[in-house]
Design brief:
- This protein has 330 residues and is α/β, with parallel strands linked by helices.
- It contains 14 helices and ten strands.
- It has a single domain, classed as Rossmann fold (3-Layer(aba) Sandwich).
- It is 51% helix and 11% strand.
- A six-stranded mixed sheet has the order 5-4-3-6-8-7, sandwiched between helices. Strands 1-2 form a two-stranded antiparallel sheet.
- Helix 1 packs across helix 9.
- The longest helix is centred in the middle third of the chain and has 19 residues.
- It is globular.
- The two termini are 34 Å apart.
């Protein structure tokens, strides 16, 4: 960035954003991020000024950044962290989350899967013989929904950014998965006993969120989750990043044009929106069966002894994880 000037004020720039064909100083980068979040909120009716907001926080840059931005914009936003039991990764993630909340005097709720429900993500993956992200996503969705409803919150906020949403869209489009495509919208309204869920970072990239955290002095979990190594989602991100390097702005156009033009057409194709739901016999959550997927998972894996992370990983993922641990210990 040596010699580059901010497009707005002509002061030295700290970041170049090719998709905007511009460079920005710290002040005007923050201004850009705030504007993009405000536009997402306004365009998609995500939040009202007096909403009680529950932010799903993981200790990573995106969830801490969106929490920081919403508080900065004047929203009443509390955080919820779910301890997934993924070894040192989870320990470090919690430390970053707790420190962020404490330094800013924000309210943080904590749920520990192992302590409160008798299992963790590595154990669930080993017992079910399914990819770890399956049990992880299922558990987090259920617990965030339950906490929001029980706590009287109006909306759940997640830190999914433009890169995340474009990668998911890419994967769903490759398979022409209409059910998933029909649900890929930045706002899921409250219905059938589920709380409203929104994604205010839909117009901002991972790089922009990392820069926000650096400028704002937010210390976050830098490492990727070891259980996500080899996940197709990361491969889709790499493919889109390669396209973006050749044609800046392609990623934003791909996702945002889908939201504007195709998502409304597919909205009524979702079985989740039209299906017949009733209450889970165990926890009372909405479900299409007698028991919800979370309670079925808990019944199947609860009570098993904890499984170390490295015993769940295979091949390249396991080698990378063990190498990382050896490096940390060295």
């Amino acid at each position: 960035m040596s010699g580059s000037k901010c497009r707005v004020c002509k002061e030295p720039a700290i970041i170049d954003l090719p998709r905007h064909n511009a460079n920005f100083c710290a002040e005007h980068l923050l201004q850009l991020c705030r504007r993009q979040v405000e536009k997402a909120i306004k365009d998609h009716d995500m939040l009202a000024p007096d909403d009680r907001v529950l932010v799903a926080v993981s200790g990573g840059k995106d969830s801490l950044a969106v929490w920081d931005i919403l508080v900065d914009l004047g929203y009443h936003a509390d955080g919820l962290y779910v301890g997934l039991g993924i070894g040192e990764y989870s320990d470090t993630s919690y430390e970053h989350t707790q420190a962020f909340a404490a330094e800013r005097g924000l309210s943080l709720q904590v749920i520990d899967l192992r302590a409160e429900y008798g299992y963790d993500v590595p154990t669930a993956a080993k017992v079910t013989r399914r990819v770890p992200c399956s049990a992880c996503g299922l558990s987090k969705r259920h617990l965030f929904d339950r906490a929001a409803l029980d706590g009287g919150y109006d909306v759940v906020v997640t830190g999914h950014n433009l890169d995340d949403e474009a990668a998911v869209l890419f994967g769903n489009t490759l398979r022409w998965d209409v059910e998933y495509l029909s649900r890929q919208y930045p706002v899921l309204p409250a219905r059938h006993g589920f709380p409203k869920k929104v994604k205010p970072l839909m117009r901002l990239t991972e790089r922009e969120m990392a820069a926000w955290c650096i400028v704002r002095g937010i210390d976050y979990q830098v490492e990727e989750c070891p259980m996500a190594i080899g996940n197709k989602h990361l491969a889709y991100k790499d493919a889109l990043n390669a396209i973006e390097r050749q044609s800046p702005g392609s990623k934003a156009s791909f996702y945002l044009e889908f939201v504007d033009k195709m998502a409304p057409i597919l909205a009524d194709r979702s079985q989740a929106a039209t299906g017949d739901l009733h209450r889970c016999a165990i926890c009372g959550s909405p479900t299409t069966g007698d028991e919800c997927a979370f309670c079925r998972l808990r019944e199947r894996v609860g009570g098993h002894d904890p499984v170390p992370v490295e015993l769940v990983l295979h091949g390249k993922a396991r080698r990378a994880y063990l190498a990382g641990r050896q490096g940390a210990e060295g």
